[in-house]
Amino acid sequence: MRDTSARMLALLSLLQSRPDWPGPELAERLGVSVRTIRHDVARLRELGYPVDAETGRAGRYRLGVGAALPPLLLDDDEAVAVALGLRAGSGPAGTREAGERALAKLDRVLPHRLRRTVAALTEATARGPENTGSDAPDPEVDPALLRTVAEAIRDSSSLRVAGDDGPSRLLEPYRLVSWERRWYVVVREPHPGRWTVLRADGLALRTPGGPRFTPVDPPEDLTDLVLREVAAAGWSVHARVVVAAPASEVLARINPAVGVVEPRDARSCVLVTGADSVATIAAYVGMLDLDFRVEGPPELVDQLRVTGERYLRAIS
Known about the structure:
Elements: H1 4-17, E1 21-22, H2 23-30, H3 34-46, E2 51-54, E3 60-63, H4 76-88, H5 93-109, H6 112-124, E4 125-127, H7 143-155, E5 159-161, E6 169-179, E7 182-189, E8 194-199, E9 205-206, H8 222-234, E10 237-243, H9 247-253, E11 259-265, E12 268-275, H10 278-287, E13 292-296, H11 298-315
Parallel strand pairs: 4-6
Antiparallel strand pairs: 1-3, 2-3, 5-6, 5-9, 6-7, 7-8, 10-12, 10-13, 11-12
Helix pairs in contact: 1-3, 2-3, 4-5, 4-6, 6-7, 10-11
């Protein structure tokens, strides 16, 4: 027989793996008596785990929903982060089934308030294409801010956002978009009805928030709006590159949302793109595998010279 602590952990794992267990089946799995199962369930309850039981000679058990997360597991932010990661993850084929099982276990024990928060974040969030990268550090975003924005989207509640150099503004939130390790919020300014994309890590929310609003239909897909806005103005560095290939060929090699391609003639075009550093742009344009010439910025020319010399040293 296992020691009591190990047995109780095994019992807890079984209770999390499916919704309902007969007492005799749990006893058989753990190699103990039905009476021992009853005692172990009582101990789990003392520790704060909400185990529900049906009365009877042998009894049936299930892990219920508590008013708070069981102790020594996860706090609110950790539970939300794990649930979102498991929902959004698309890991290797061998890990997907295990991830789904883990998510099912977590969903069964999440308190109702956190279930609603996870549901709000899931429904309010979209993801852009994972086709680019960055050598810049990831910005820090407070999980509490993401929860507040997602719940405002769910409830159609305005956000009161601090202005850069003036009074706060009332904005209507419509979508959270996660792209390239960054969070963006699509909002509508009720006056004059302009749609705007904001970086979540730059938001300063004021409390209390604003009044409820009646949602309106957006003018386009909001994820596409984010990608286009970021490509046009959202990067730290922007570049203009003449590519020795037709626009159609360049568009076939990039996601249209991460750069604007302007045709010049039948054999060349201009790519306007950006990133968080010139080193990242240098890598991007090199991956086109096409001849090109940089029109700007000068820092990109300097970076390409450094990168080119590095490549030459690698083969000398």
